[in-house]
Amino acid sequence: MRTPNWLNMGNEERAAKSSLKEAQLLASAISSTIKIDFKREFKIFEANLIARVENGEHALINAARSKDAIIAGVVVLRKQLDKAQRKFSRSNDSNELKEILLEIAEELSRLKVINAKVAESLYSVINPVHSAVDLVEKFTLTMQMNSAVWESDARNLDANLFELSNDSSPSEMGDLQNYITTQGYDVLIAGDDRSAKGIRIAKEKLGIQSSSSEESE
After folding, report:
1. What is the Cα–Cα distance from 81 to 104, expressed in whole angstroms?
2. What secondary structure letter does DSSP report for 8?
3. Which domains does the chain have, with CATH numbers?
4. Which of 2, 111, 181, 209 is the most exposed place for a label (fewest CB within 10 A)?
5. Cα distance between residue 36 and residue 59, in whole Å
6. What pLDDT, on a 0 to 100 scale, did the predictor assign at position 6?
7. CA triple 135-140-142, angle to 5 deg
């Protein structure tokens, strides 16, 4: 049976298409919002993370160079001490050994001061205002805060689709069935067979629900 032309584009379909268009726009807006929010926050996070490394780079390189110089200085001092001890073992001249020991101690003290300054220069690297972990936590927290807005929009989208998913029968269909039921058409359909069984069969053909007493007959 061909579908009547008047059913091709009824009010329900027009309403559904209109609501679906709104849902599509909302879905597009949600996607765009998430993309923009994520891109913005990730850019900030990435810049801060790179800055974390760059801020420590200068201090770390200088500290490494200073440590190399300190180690080289200590090696030189150790050689001077070994040489002085060998000389003392041959000459037994304690005054010269004492003089060299005092010079070595003075130089070693200077290297200790330099080493302390190196440690101080690394404080900002070891104890930054924001560590890499802090930056990750801040990024994820910001994403969670933004997600509250995303979820709200997503709930509106679901509500839109849920509203469209109305599985109840159209009221017009029920009105027509009630009209057929109340007009006595079952008698017309039954024809000459006006028995209880004949009336029940006629009602079934018309989609009319028989009463309990009629069904028991």
Report:
1. 8
2. T
3. 17-164 (1.10.287), 171-217 (no CATH)
4. 2
5. 36
6. 43
7. 95
